[in-house]
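Lab manual, section 2.4: Encoding a predicted structure.

Procedure: take the sequence of the chain (701 residues), apply the prediction step described in section 2.3, and record the output as structure tokens. A sample record is shown.
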Amino acid sequence: MVFPPFFYMGMSVQKKFICGLASFILFIGLVGFIIGFFARPSVDKGSCNGAKNGNGDTSGMLTYEKDALDLVLAERIRHYLKYFGNESHISRTNESCNQAQFIKKEWNSFGLNTVELKRYNVQLWYPKRPSEVMLVNETGKVVYSSKLIQKKLHTLDGESRNKFPFSVYSASGVATGKLLYANYGREDDFKYLEDKNITCAGKIVLLRYGKIHEATKVANAQKWKAAGILMYLDPIDYTANAPHNNLTEVTWYPSDTDFWENKGDPLTPGYPATAGIHRESVDSIPLSNIPVQPISDKEAETLLRILNQTVKPKNWQGGLDFSYGIQGIQMDPNDTRRVTLNVSIGLVKRSVCNVVGTIKGRTEPDRYILLGSPSPSTGTAVLMEVARILLSIRKKGWEPHRTIKLCGWGSRNIGSVEWIEEYQRVLESRAVAYLNVDKGVQGNFNTTVKSNPLLEETAFQAAKKVKVLDSPLQSLYNEWNKTSLVSTGSESGCLFFAYKIGVPCVNLIYRSYNGSSGQTSDSLKYLVALTQVWLQMTFDIARSEFIPFDVVHYAETLCTFIENLSETYNGNLKQKNITLEFLVKAAADFQAAAKTFQDCLHAVDKEDVLKVRMANDRLLQLDRAFTSKEGLPGRPFMRHVALAPSYFPRALDSKFAGITDSIQTAQGSDNGKDWERVSKQISMVTHAFRSAISVLQPPEF
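Recorded output:
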């Protein structure tokens, strides 16, 4: 500070010197403060929670992402297929932890330091010895016998490994009876036999895989009092358009589905199988009470050839090299031979290990895009290539807007279920989407997609950017059937993410010829395309300011389902004094709210971090609004009242399963309370629509 001249009048020289020095020091301090204030580095408002404000150089990020698709290498995928293909992936062994350790080491070598390996101690059924199928004559002499041991084919190291095919949670024991072919084991198949006065009671039924869940086949066979079940994979259901000589000599499809609705550790339903968690008694597990066994198509052909009575319908014919119709579907009444099935399994303790790697988001680190696969070979090999590429471009400067979690699941879906049970509260509040890759069973080389309606457009736009095979004009989008998209698959890795905790899911499915290890030229090209579309979807969801959910399409899709529901059941419901009026109105109001929300979203200032966050929070919670705490009737782990699959096989792809399943149950019952359950389910869905409206209609953005 500089003082005026009169301030110094009357002062001694010494005092004038001191005052001048003080003035000079104050002046220098003031100048330094001003320079420091304007020159100081900016501080991110979100630095307290680890977030950084703003989107940075989005054009640079887009360049990294575009270049990333060209980094996908078929040889790298082949490398991991070779490794994972030579591992034993029976989900009842401890080798899932060996694989998790390998994945963790690889991700660390890529430069990913945040990798967590999570172990769960589960108890699951596992065969004590190979199961056996015998054909015994009236004197007890065994005229045909086969121990069911699967030799692993196509191992690249030339080694042939044996393993015991088994059906998870099958009853252990011996069943003897005449053989009966019952097609896919659907309710309609058993009713056909009943209408023909063919009894299943006390017989060994031979079923084809496919069409409905394995658990439902077993439930149906038990309902019709079968003594035991044999299941095989028919060539026509596996490679419908492929030449038969492309099949291996013996085709297996070992069961990977259980009867336990939770699909995780059966002794800790709803909770992770970790230390300190109570275990239920084995007696409380709802298991099958008859032996169930997968067999090869070769074994199935041998058994089918002993059937010579009652010509079956044409659509019961499979793809084996003889006519089942000429042979018949049951044994001659005068044939005194019997089929004996001997299965020995027991409960064993196993460790299931997941490995989860985290690429932290720049702006929204507490919002997660999850990538995973229950496929221990193909899907995991593709995941490894995705991880390599993401970490490669991160080293060059790329950063996602939101956090990406790479999930290597142990023991197929068991690992993901345990992880969801442990982190359910966190995932319900933070998970944006789950992108899953499954290896399908049926079909020739191709990829398909199933999606929550919220992410359909995102999936399509990503597929348009990915070319297939050698055609520069042919995109992956052209191969996908748009009409069959609205489903994530009731047995896919999406199951619990989508239907238990309401995390929108996209299920990318790769199919190949039987016997192909995914390492042929054509199959690798499809796997490269699959990797690219997985990457592109990840980029699109992780980068966008607003979560790319199409709320209008979501609302329109659900309204269409409601219209179909009303057309199908309104007449029957009126006879029971049950109305759909409030449900139909709530659905229409939701559609209007979705359109209003979408319009408001376009008007939000993207530079206003708080308003963007508020909008994204509502998008995040939209699908959760359709989850019910109590779950669907008899299925507490299926909580999504709109999209969860039906329990009944004839309506697996129907929507609002709580309503449709309750109606189907009530129509076959004289119990008036069953119709009360229908009314309750309708009210639950009505409330879900109203909850979704409240999510989309905040007081203000």
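Check your result against the sample. The chain has a mean pLDDT of 82.
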